[in-house]
Amino acid sequence: MKIFRGFHHPGIAEGCALTIGNFDGVHRGHQAMLALLNSEAAHRGVPSCVLTFEPHPRDYFAGLLKRPELAPARIGTLRDKLAELRQCGVAQAVVLPFNEALARLSPQAFIDEVLVAGLGARYVLVGDDFRFGAQRAGDYALLDAAGRARGFDVARMNSYEVHGLRVSSSAVREALGAGRMEDAARLLGRPYAISGHVVHGRKLGRALGASREGATDGFRTLNLRFAHWKPAASGIFAVLVHGLSDAPLPGVANLGVRPSLDPDDINGGRVLLETHCLQWPAHLGPEGAYGKIIRVELLHKLHDELKYDGLDALTEGIAKDCSDARAYFAAHAATHTETRRQTTRDRI
């Protein structure tokens, strides 16, 4: 999949079958839409294209109004979104920076400058609640009329349901916020996962528990850091880690702001995914994971983040979390012996 920041690039296709949206989570409703888009693109002999935005438009307006509570919880990072779009067979993705200029663009100007002149859209597929342009003034009827006038086809896809439940990013956020990881996986068509580069932290985990009987190097963690990200899920989870070994590694992870740390700590108040592998690969050595891209599947929520009184209490809490995670994997050994990513055909 080719990825473009904006559409003023020589490598971008002169014509495309296009869909537009935030695609947060790339859930099963998105996957069904992308399958239809790919089919329409093949019939027309043009590449399929997703036009998406970064930051999320609601993030932009929350910052503009200085009201962070209006920003949506994010299901996935831009990296994960693009990875899932590639997995769904999309030929090219165009990431538009959502800024003042784009926010002020009228619906007609959006059609003329972005869809026609910028992307050469020959087919445009949107959802049943699609709105666009300044003040969200553009709707399907306006887009359809413009398509007839400018020579591109327009289609609308109705909501996608699973067991009578409308699949949407909002439904996924609600499931993740409530810790219902199995429900989230059903809506996503796969276990919920976050990926990123492993970065250096304080290495506090190496000291925690190192003096416990049978311990050698404490609770070593793999740290993924996110800039300006408000995750839909938070808490302590039993996880599988991909990217360090031929087989996924069971572990326990903390996604959140770690309330037991001093707020003046270098990572205090910042969202971090800290993952401790229950079985550390010997071939990596103590420093071998840094810089690697890993994908962490959050399979089961153990509990919300807790604030512990001191490092001893924190150590005991982590030890219990590890024990509970081992118990979870023992009880679900058959399910997690081998994980399988669904194909797009499986998903719809």
From TrEMBL:
InterPro entries: FAD_synthase (IPR015864), Riboflavin_kinase (IPR023468), Riboflavin_kinase_bac (IPR002606), Riboflavin_kinase_bac/euk (IPR015865), Riboflavin_kinase_dom_sf (IPR023465), Rossmann-like_a/b/a_fold (IPR014729)
Protein name in UniProt: Riboflavin biosynthesis protein
PANTHER family registered for this protein in UniProt: RIBOFLAVIN KINASE, RIBOFLAVIN KINASE/FMN ADENYLYLTRANSFERASE
Family the UniProt entry places it in: Belongs to the ribF family.
EC number: 2.7.1.26, 2.7.7.2
Catalyzed chemical reaction(s): riboflavin + ATP = FMN + ADP + H(+); FMN + ATP + H(+) = FAD + diphosphate
SMART domains from the UniProt entry: Flavokinase
NCBIfam families xrefs: PRK05627.1-2 (NF004159), PRK05627.1-6 (NF004163), ribF (TIGR00083)
Molecular-function GO terms, alphabetical: FMN adenylyltransferase activity; riboflavin kinase activity
Keywords: ATP-binding, FAD, Flavoprotein, FMN, Kinase, Multifunctional enzyme, Nucleotide-binding, Nucleotidyltransferase, Transferase
Keyword Nucleotidyltransferase (UniProt): yes
Record's function text: Catalyzes the phosphorylation of riboflavin to FMN followed by the adenylation of FMN to FAD.
Domain Riboflavin kinase: 187-330
Tagged with keyword Transferase: yes
Pathway: Cofactor biosynthesis; FAD biosynthesis; FAD from FMN: step 1/1; Cofactor biosynthesis; FMN biosynthesis; FMN from riboflavin (ATP route): step 1/1
Pfam families in the cross-refs: FAD_syn, Flavokinase
